[in-house]
Design a protein that fits this description.
2 helices; 25% helix; single chain; alpha+beta; 128 residues; Nuclear Transport Factor 2, Chain: A
Length: 128
Protein backbone atom coordinates (compact mmCIF):
# COMPACT_ATOMS: atom_id res chain seq x y z
CA UNK A 1 0.00 0.00 0.00
CA UNK A 2 1.41 3.36 -1.03
CA UNK A 3 1.91 6.12 1.48
CA UNK A 4 -0.40 9.05 0.88
CA UNK A 5 0.88 12.54 1.67
CA UNK A 6 -1.49 14.48 3.93
CA UNK A 7 -1.56 18.27 4.25
CA UNK A 8 -3.41 19.17 7.43
CA UNK A 9 -7.00 19.01 8.56
CA UNK A 10 -9.72 19.73 6.02
CA UNK A 11 -11.75 22.80 6.95
CA UNK A 12 -14.64 23.06 7.56
CA UNK A 13 -14.13 20.01 9.74
CA UNK A 14 -15.92 16.89 8.58
CA UNK A 15 -15.94 13.33 9.84
CA UNK A 16 -16.60 11.50 6.60
CA UNK A 17 -13.20 9.92 6.25
CA UNK A 18 -13.04 6.73 4.23
CA UNK A 19 -9.50 5.84 5.26
CA UNK A 20 -10.04 5.14 8.98
CA UNK A 21 -8.86 8.49 10.28
CA UNK A 22 -10.81 10.43 12.86
CA UNK A 23 -11.30 13.49 10.65
CA UNK A 24 -10.78 14.25 6.99
CA UNK A 25 -7.33 15.39 5.90
CA UNK A 26 -6.28 17.27 2.78
CA UNK A 27 -4.57 15.13 0.17
CA UNK A 28 -3.56 18.01 -2.13
CA UNK A 29 -1.71 21.23 -1.32
CA UNK A 30 -4.39 23.21 -3.13
CA UNK A 31 -6.99 21.78 -0.73
CA UNK A 32 -4.76 22.67 2.20
CA UNK A 33 -4.48 26.29 1.04
CA UNK A 34 -8.27 26.48 0.62
CA UNK A 35 -8.75 25.11 4.15
CA UNK A 36 -6.21 27.58 5.52
CA UNK A 37 -7.95 30.49 3.76
CA UNK A 38 -11.36 29.61 5.17
CA UNK A 39 -9.90 29.05 8.64
CA UNK A 40 -7.93 32.30 8.57
CA UNK A 41 -10.74 34.49 7.22
CA UNK A 42 -13.42 33.21 9.60
CA UNK A 43 -11.26 33.28 12.76
CA UNK A 44 -11.64 36.58 14.62
CA UNK A 45 -8.38 38.12 15.80
CA UNK A 46 -7.73 37.29 19.44
CA UNK A 47 -9.49 33.90 19.31
CA UNK A 48 -6.45 31.72 18.68
CA UNK A 49 -4.54 30.75 21.80
CA UNK A 50 -0.89 31.80 21.83
CA UNK A 51 -1.33 33.62 18.53
CA UNK A 52 -3.77 36.48 19.17
CA UNK A 53 -2.88 38.24 15.91
CA UNK A 54 -4.08 35.26 13.81
CA UNK A 55 -7.33 35.83 11.93
CA UNK A 56 -9.22 38.84 10.65
CA UNK A 57 -11.29 41.66 12.09
CA UNK A 58 -14.19 41.06 9.71
CA UNK A 59 -16.60 40.79 12.64
CA UNK A 60 -16.13 44.51 13.33
CA UNK A 61 -17.62 45.39 9.93
CA UNK A 62 -21.03 43.86 10.69
CA UNK A 63 -22.63 47.17 11.63
CA UNK A 64 -20.55 49.41 9.35
CA UNK A 65 -22.22 51.08 6.36
CA UNK A 66 -22.36 48.95 3.23
CA UNK A 67 -20.24 51.35 1.17
CA UNK A 68 -17.00 51.46 -0.80
CA UNK A 69 -14.97 52.57 2.23
CA UNK A 70 -16.00 49.51 4.23
CA UNK A 71 -15.41 47.29 1.20
CA UNK A 72 -11.91 48.72 0.81
CA UNK A 73 -11.17 48.06 4.49
CA UNK A 74 -12.34 44.45 4.12
CA UNK A 75 -10.17 43.93 1.03
CA UNK A 76 -7.11 45.38 2.79
CA UNK A 77 -7.73 43.24 5.89
CA UNK A 78 -7.93 40.05 3.84
CA UNK A 79 -4.89 40.88 1.64
CA UNK A 80 -2.64 41.73 4.58
CA UNK A 81 -3.71 38.73 6.65
CA UNK A 82 -3.38 36.19 3.83
CA UNK A 83 0.06 37.47 2.80
CA UNK A 84 1.24 37.21 6.41
CA UNK A 85 -0.11 33.76 7.32
CA UNK A 86 -0.37 31.83 4.04
CA UNK A 87 2.83 32.54 2.08
CA UNK A 88 2.16 29.79 -0.49
CA UNK A 89 -1.02 31.63 -1.57
CA UNK A 90 -0.77 34.56 -3.95
CA UNK A 91 -3.99 36.55 -4.35
CA UNK A 92 -4.53 37.48 -8.00
CA UNK A 93 -7.94 39.12 -7.75
CA UNK A 94 -10.07 40.15 -4.78
CA UNK A 95 -13.53 41.69 -4.97
CA UNK A 96 -16.31 42.55 -2.55
CA UNK A 97 -19.91 42.86 -3.66
CA UNK A 98 -23.31 43.00 -2.06
CA UNK A 99 -25.06 39.65 -1.65
CA UNK A 100 -28.15 38.87 -3.70
CA UNK A 101 -30.49 39.46 -0.76
CA UNK A 102 -28.83 42.81 0.04
CA UNK A 103 -28.11 41.86 3.65
CA UNK A 104 -24.50 40.68 3.54
CA UNK A 105 -21.38 40.80 1.42
CA UNK A 106 -19.68 38.28 -0.82
CA UNK A 107 -15.89 38.22 -1.13
CA UNK A 108 -14.66 36.71 -4.40
CA UNK A 109 -11.04 35.70 -4.52
CA UNK A 110 -8.83 34.25 -7.24
CA UNK A 111 -5.51 32.95 -6.02
CA UNK A 112 -2.52 30.91 -7.07
CA UNK A 113 -0.99 28.13 -4.98
CA UNK A 114 2.78 28.35 -5.22
CA UNK A 115 4.18 24.84 -4.94
CA UNK A 116 6.69 22.69 -6.77
CA UNK A 117 7.51 25.52 -9.22
CA UNK A 118 4.04 25.31 -10.70
CA UNK A 119 1.00 27.45 -10.17
CA UNK A 120 -2.69 26.88 -10.67
CA UNK A 121 -5.46 29.43 -10.34
CA UNK A 122 -8.33 28.76 -7.93
CA UNK A 123 -11.33 30.82 -6.91
CA UNK A 124 -13.54 30.99 -3.85
CA UNK A 125 -16.64 32.98 -2.87
CA UNK A 126 -17.14 33.73 0.81
CA UNK A 127 -20.38 35.04 2.29
CA UNK A 128 -19.86 37.42 5.20
Amino acid sequence: MANIQRYGIKFPITILSSDNTLIDLNEEQSDEVYSQLIHLIFTPKGQRLRNPDFGTRLIQYIFNPNDSETWGDILMEIKETVSKYIPMCSIQQLEVEESENGIGLVVKMKYIVKSNNSSQEYSVSINI
